[in-house]
Specification:
With 182 residues, the protein is mainly alpha-helical. It is elongated and about 65 Å long. A hairpin with a 7-residue loop joins strand 2 and strand 3. It is built from 8 helices and 3 strands. It comes from Cohnella zeiphila.
Length: 182
């Protein structure tokens, strides 16, 4: 899940406390992601239990203790695992895909191409479905749904545009040296 990846990447940048992790994710991706306490703190507990991060207590005068989270070597490996884990289900979710693309510098050309081709395949299937529905009648009456048709037209245009973009990313990945940061 992308939220796990975003949390770990923030901790990888530097040790942080929970609110700081949330604030940094919101700053980077606020228009795409809403990180709430019900996502953040259970993930931090799970990562601590798995040994992916360590939690250090920072005692503060006249204020509650603060816990600072730091990435372990297992956490670094977990980030690589999460970036490369991109399923057919993930391919249907814009945010999952966009986050992977933003991290392409960290993965091999082979995995970049796998992710891009999986997303492209999903988009082509979506486009075929949109185009089948685009020219349908409203419940056999012969009347077109004006606003429905507009939504479908826009959806088809947006999907075609993303497919063109992915084709360009595929061309770039195919010509790149395999010089990713591991």
């Amino acid at each position: 899940m992308y939220i796990d990846l975003l949390i770990l990447i923030q901790i990888e940048k530097s040790p942080k406390h929970g609110y700081e992790i949330k604030k940094e994710i919101q700053k980077d991706l606020g228009h795409l992601v809403d990180v709430n306490h019900n996502l953040l703190y259970p993930a931090l507990r799970r990562f601590t239990n798995e040994g992916v991060i360590v939690r250090n207590r920072n005692e503060q005068e006249s204020r509650p203790n603060q816990y600072i989270y730091e990435l372990t070597n297992a956490g670094k490996a977990k980030i690589v695992e999460l970036i490369n884990a991109f399923t057919e289900k993930d391919a249907r979710h814009d945010i999952e895909f966009m986050i992977r693309v933003s991290l392409f510098h960290r993965i091999s050309r082979e995995n970049r191409l796998r992710i891009l081709n999986r997303r492209k395949k999903d988009l082509e299937s979506l486009l075929a479905n949109i185009e089948r529905r685009q020219f349908g009648d409203e419940e056999g009456t012969g009347k077109r749904r004006t606003f429905r048709a507009e939504v479908l037209r826009y959806s088809a245009s947006r999907t075609k545009s993303e497919i063109r973009w992915i084709d360009e990313l595929i061309r770039q990945a195919e010509s790149d040296e395999d010089d990713f940061d591991a």
